[in-house]
């Protein structure tokens, strides 16, 4: 084992010094090839469904390196691989460098990133910032303060080669269907977030171990954790969400919905369930009591993606009840409780996250109470009509509003148009 060298030398010199530390471990001909061509002597095939971050850690482990040393060797001093969320797949220089060093094509590596869901969950995934359905890692350099990486302890224990699945980064994935247990997003011993790249940082670690199965803070083995059993309802609800990732028709209230529109609408339903405002009315329609984490929420910064596994499982179950019973019926019943359309549409963004038509149409039909506002031509025709039947030069604003079918009896717009035409308001 060796550590990153603290030196003021140029990046190329640092990389060479790190490599020469490996010379005693690698055969001479392999070391010469690595030094000249920057090709790693040992490679690992990416397992189907594996995340790019998990695969990079396995590559570093295979060479006895930390991910920091691997990053310095690939791209020069100061270029830390995990300074960004690697699973987003936006660091093109890194992907190209690893592709050249390992012989894997860029297309193969990109399958391990969240960008592989573009066109399914998102039209185009943002490079940084909060992203719908992505668990945030909340990075500070290479440190992590967010619980954005999940794992199944039994999967890691039974895998021939332990690895992290890419779908474990999605907010609606809360359980392992194979072992029927909830996923975990922190160390059971010290509650530290999962940061697989920091296992070899700062202190000497067992060469045979890996950050994939060991906590970087206390060294506890994640495979020894006993996960909580998942309810059948949670597994069924999760499977329905996962089916939407596959090329199969998505049916919502007897209508076929595109996957992009489906995930956009379901995200708005999750946000509605996670909102303190109208929580009793919304959860009451499901014949359930509003969860404590919703009732006790002080602010909603970050959205439902920052909730823990159990809280997201509750939102998943509530959303599945709405979808199975019918979204239109649910919206209609909220309308009977005088819930406004704004309450269901406040989570949309006209540019980044507009409300999909299938969801908006239900709200428009049952909850929209927009006041009718006539145009100037309609107001003018109504004024002339009232003058003809009244036989005078004065008209009541109240009579005009009633004639135009407006919800108010004292419209400023109608009164202003009367003054412009010289008509007296009596």
Description:
This protein has 426 residues and is mainly alpha-helical. The protein is built from 18 helices and eight strands. Helix 1 (11-22) crosses helix 4 (67-75), helix 8 packs across helix 12 (309-325) and helix 13 runs parallel beside helix 15 (357-366). It is elongated, with a radius of gyration of 30 Å.
Class based on secondary structure composition and strand pairing: mainly alpha
Which sequence of strands runs across the widest sheet? 1-2
Topology, number of strands: 8
User: Using only CA atoms, what is the Rg?
Assistant: 30 Å
User: What's the story with the biggest beta sheet?
Assistant: 2 strands, antiparallel
How many angstroms separate the termini? 94 Å
Helix content: 40-55%
Form type: elongated
Our count of helices gives 18
Q: Give, in order, the helices and strands.
A: HHHHHHEEHEEHEEHHHHHHHHEHHE
The fraction of residues assigned to DSSP E strands is under 5%
The residue ranges in which pLDDT falls below 50 over 5 or more consecutive positions are 1-21
| Mean pLDDT across all amino acids | 83
């Amino acid at each position: 084992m060796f550590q990153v060298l603290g030196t003021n030398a140029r990046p190329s010199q640092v990389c060479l010094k790190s490599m020469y530390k490996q010379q005693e471990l690698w055969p001479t001909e392999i070391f010469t090839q690595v030094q000249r061509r920057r090709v790693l002597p040992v490679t690992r095939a990416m397992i189907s469904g594996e995340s790019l971050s998990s695969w990079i850690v396995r590559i570093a482990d295979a060479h006895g390196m930390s991910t920091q040393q691997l990053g310095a060797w690939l791209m020069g001093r100061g270029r830390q691989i995990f300074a960004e969320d690697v699973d987003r797949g936006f660091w093109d220089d890194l992907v190209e460098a690893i592709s050249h060093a390992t012989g894997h094509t860029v297309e193969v590596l990109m399958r391990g990133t969240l960008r592989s869901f573009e066109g399914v969950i998102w039209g185009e995934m943002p490079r940084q910032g909060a992203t719908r359905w992505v668990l945030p890692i909340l990075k500070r350099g290479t440190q992590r303060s967010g619980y954005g990486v999940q794992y199944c302890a039994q999967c890691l224990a039974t895998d021939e080669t332990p690895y992290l699945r890419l779908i474990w980064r999605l907010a609606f994935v809360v359980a392992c269907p194979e072992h029927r247990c909830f996923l975990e997003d922190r160390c059971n011993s010290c509650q530290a977030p999962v940061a697989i790249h920091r296992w070899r940082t700062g202190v000497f670690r067992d060469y045979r171990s890996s950050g994939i199965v060991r906590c970087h803070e206390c060294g506890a083995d994640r495979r020894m954790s006993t996960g909580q059993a998942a309810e059948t309802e949670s597994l069924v609800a999760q499977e329905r969400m996962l089916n939407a990732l596959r090329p199969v028709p998505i049916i919502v209230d007897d209508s076929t919905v595109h996957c992009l529109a489906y995930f956009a609408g379901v995200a708005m339903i999750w946000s509605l369930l996670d909102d303190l405002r109208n929580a009793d009315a919304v959860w009451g329609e499901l014949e359930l009591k509003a969860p404590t984490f919703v009732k006790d929420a002080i602010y909603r910064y970050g959205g439902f993606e920052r909730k823990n596994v159990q809280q997201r499982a509750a939102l998943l179950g509530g959303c599945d009840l709405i979808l199975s019973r019918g979204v239109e019926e649910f919206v209609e019943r909220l309308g009977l409780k005088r819930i406004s359309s704004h309450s269901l549409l406040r989570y949309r963004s006209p540019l980044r996250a507009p409300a999909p038509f299938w969801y908006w149409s239900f709200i428009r039909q049952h909850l929209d109470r927009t006041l009718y506002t006539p145009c100037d031509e309609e107001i003018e025709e109504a004024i002339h009509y009232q003058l003809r039947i009244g036989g005078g030069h004065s008209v009541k604003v109240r009579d005009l509003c009633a004639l135009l079918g407006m919800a108010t009896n004292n419209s400023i717009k109608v009164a202003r148009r009367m003054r412009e035409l010289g008509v007296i308001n009596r």
